[in-house]
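call fold target=Fis family transcriptional regulator
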Amino acid sequence: MPKILIIEDEESIRRVLVKILSEENNSYQVSEASDGLAGMELIKNEDFDLVLCDIKMPKMDGVEVLEATKKIKPEIPMVMISGHGDLDVAVNTMRLGAFDYISKPPDLNRLLNTVRIALDRKELVVENKKLKKKVSKNYEMVGESKAIQHIKDMIEKVAPTEARVLITGANGTGKELVAHWIHEKSERSKGPMIEVNCAAIPPELIESELFGHVKGAFTSAIKDRAGKFEAANGGTLFLDEIGDMSLAVQAKVLRALQEGKVQRVGNDKDIKVDVRVVAATNKNLKEEIKENRFREDLYHRLAVILIEVPALEDRREDIPLLIEFFTEKIANEQGILKKSFDKKAIQLLQEYDWSGNIRELRNVVERLIILGGKEITEGDVKMFATK
């Protein structure tokens, strides 16, 4: 049931608002306060889906209530109630974060329409937060080892900046997780996070994939198409396995980084892009440079900050936490009861040589949950976690 708070010092106006909202929809739970201070106490101690607040009030005016509410509960939409002489102030409250304003005496249709839209927006904001939290959890970095804590500390320092980051490490170590956490903790987190696996795209298509193309640029180009650089505008572009990119495309990526511009295939028109590039590779790019397979100037553009993700064998103390994390995640994904691992099973898994790193561990945990008993034992590990 949506909860609405009305803060209004004029009792007659307050009564009208309560009556309109109560009669319009019995599912609204309406509370009221006769001044700004009383209203703020309710806002601090209760959860409201919408606040209607008068601008001119004793003790604490509506602008002060708005500013205070936005600091402690910014998700609550605030609709300001303005008298005839308060119109300029009401417009200014919109700049301060108010959802809308309503003039006195309130027009019935306008009031109800504004309330409905504001409540819909509140619901949307809440859903978006839940979704973002869910997405963040999918990319959670699990571990308390010194190696993983070092990476977390690096991310905390690097993410708020605009510095380009090159992430290195073997396959399956979690380079993608690092890239996502950099984006999530950056000022660009509200923008898109676009991923490109450079090794998975055929060489003849990678340029079009990154920069887009115009109709007729090549045989299958039946219409104009934006590339990943344009799609990532305002956000982050994650170039995974960048060591597999051809030298010709590397040159164009270098230009895009230097000038902040791209050109679609088949067109010489520059398109400005505002993109932070995070790259990853499992190759030794310095060796690739010596073999003339990677441009040194591009390397230095990308490797402003270097983050090396350790292999699982270098952080074996994190394996129990990873097993717990994957067990819960798999149980939720498959709708099955969560199983536990006994100490000997965990100890045995800690001793294994995880050449496939975290990706391999996750697969083994899933296999054990499906094939093992109610509690995963040392015997289950020996039988099903084949190496």
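return ok
The first strand starts at residue 3 and ends at 7. The chain has three domains: 3-135, 139-310, 313-384.
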